[in-house]
């Protein structure tokens, strides 16, 4: 099989008024193309941070994210936007529809 998503040493630290808070700490993961993977955990466990990092919305503090052979750490912000547009789809928990647009 072909690896669709590869994470290596993925860490995301948020700076808060109370100090640094690690949402992800050294995550290693490989998801093969066509594989179904479930992500479960309690509120605040880092699920949204992980998916937002894989989806190129957030940049990790350290570690590597490779999607379909592209190391997204090496992409600048415009390249990340184009990559996200062409390669990644999202279904958000709360929809974000633009009422001024139609599907036509």
Structural features, described:
- The protein has 104 residues and is of the alpha+beta class.
- It has helices spanning 47-54, 77-87, and strands at 3-16, 19-32, 62-67, 70-71.
- It has one domain (3-87): P-loop containing nucleotide triphosphate hydrolases (Rossmann fold).
- The chain is built from two helices and four strands; from the N terminus they run E-E-H-E-E-H.
- The protein has a four-stranded antiparallel beta sheet, covered by helices on one side.
- Strand 1 and strand 2 form a beta hairpin.
CATH topology grouping: Rossmann fold
Q: How far apart, in Å, are the first and last alpha carbons?
A: 37 Å
Which strand order spans the largest sheet, edge to edge or round the barrel?
2-1-3-4
The 3D shape can be described as globular
**Proportion of beta-strand residues:** 25-35%
CATH architecture classification: 3-Layer(aba) Sandwich
Multimeric state of these chains? single chain
């Amino acid at each position: 099989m072909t690896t669709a998503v590869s994470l290596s040493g993925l860490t995301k630290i948020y700076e808060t008024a109370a100090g640094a808070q690690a949402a992800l700490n050294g995550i290693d993961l490989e998801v093969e193309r066509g594989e179904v993977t479930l992500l479960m955990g309690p509120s605040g466990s880092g699920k949204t941070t992980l998916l937002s990092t894989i989806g190129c919305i957030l940049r990790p503090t350290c570690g590597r994210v490779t999607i379909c052979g592209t190391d997204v750490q090496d992409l600048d912000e415009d390249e990340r936007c184009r990559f996200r547009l062409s390669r990644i789809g999202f279904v958000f928990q709360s929809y974000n529809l633009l009422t001024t647009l139609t599907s036509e």
